[in-house]
Amino acid sequence: MHGVLAYCRPGFESECAQEFSARDAALATGGFARSRRDSGYVEFVLPDADAAARFHTSTPWRGLTFARQCLRVLARLESLPAQDRLSVILPVVRATGRRYADAWIESPDSDAGRELAGLCRALNNALVAALKREKLLDPASGLRLHVGLTDTPVAFVAEADLATAAPWPGGIPRLRFPSAAPSRSTLKLEEALLTLLDEGERERWLKPGMTAVDLGAAPGGWTWQLVRRSLHVTSVDNGPMAQSLLDSGLVTHLREDGFRYRPAQPVDWMVCDMVEQPRRVAARMAEWLAQGWCRHTVFNLKLPMKKRYDEVALCHDLFAEALAAAGRRFEWRARQLYHDREEITVFARVR
Length: 351
Ligand SMILES: C[S@@+](CC[C@H](N)C(=O)[O-])C[C@H]1O[C@@H](n2cnc3c(N)ncnc32)[C@H](O)[C@@H]1O
What we know:
Elements: E1 2-7, H1 13-27, E2 32-35, E3 41-46, H2 49-57, E4 69-77, H3 86-96, E5 102-106, H4 111-115, H5 117-133, E6 143-149, E7 155-161, H6 186-196, H7 199-205, E8 211-215, H8 221-228, E9 232-236, H9 243-246, E10 251-254, E11 267-272, H10 278-290, E12 294-302, H11 308-325, E13 330-335, E14 343-350
Parallel strand pairs: 5-6, 8-9, 8-11, 9-10, 11-12
Antiparallel strand pairs: 1-3, 1-4, 2-3, 4-7, 6-7, 12-14, 13-14
This protein binds S-adenosylmethionine.
């Protein structure tokens, strides 16, 4: 098989497939998606090796919203022998003539996939040992080998370019809940800053002493992430904020409507986790950037509707129109985070 394999949140295979189909149409690569609801993965099949390489190169993980990981498929194995899986996997690896920095055996984030986690760990050790013996591992290689085990007899041998792939097994950053944070939502903003910005951007754009507004802030999980980085935060919400945050000296709590509030002075960041219609949120976020009220923003778009992919496209387009009308160029990076449920998280800024 020529193509790519993507992991996604179970239940979002169709959105992931739609995203790939849109890419495919733009690149004229002639592919099609193969997916099964709740499987946690999508195959995108391409007609030949050239099309697969072109598609994979033009589809870096950071540019995708619904895929947690995007891998180039080397082989689709129809049925791995349960007794000796490596005897089928290793010939595929040898045939590439390439060496790999590392090798990961993964399963999708579905109920069935999670049951394979123990098997993946055991096989992973055996695979790495075999690759070492055959001198197929090279720490200087820019490639990582992936084996995807699914709940069906089908398994995938695939590879990732380290520079453009997600750096976590299954594309899932495992974050520990900080016990001092007032809500589990805190992990959403932490993951957003980790996956939507690179290290250099985090250093340049999130400096102690900067200012931020948090719309829909209570009880304060997102505010906590900003305070942890020593930003001064105005937290807007009619609900109560955690006392520890108010005691930090860095937080001003305003019991106001987040859709009406505007800052007296421009701020560095505005973040927003208000539960509202995504179009209404996107329009207000665009206004903040268009008016120059903030330089960077992270916001959540809740997607309880059926046509989630279309809704995201619509939000993007109305956002783009508002900024074009204000004569502003902008950047939009959207992702369904591991900690997002029926929603996506967007980072946007004016250039
Ligand atoms: C999902 S919770 C936010 C959780 C928060 N990000 C955290 O990490 O703890 C949504 C919040 O949005 C607030 N909210 C909804 N509509 C609002 C509005 N128009 N103005 C201000 N806050 C609003 C709600 O009161 C609620 O506290």
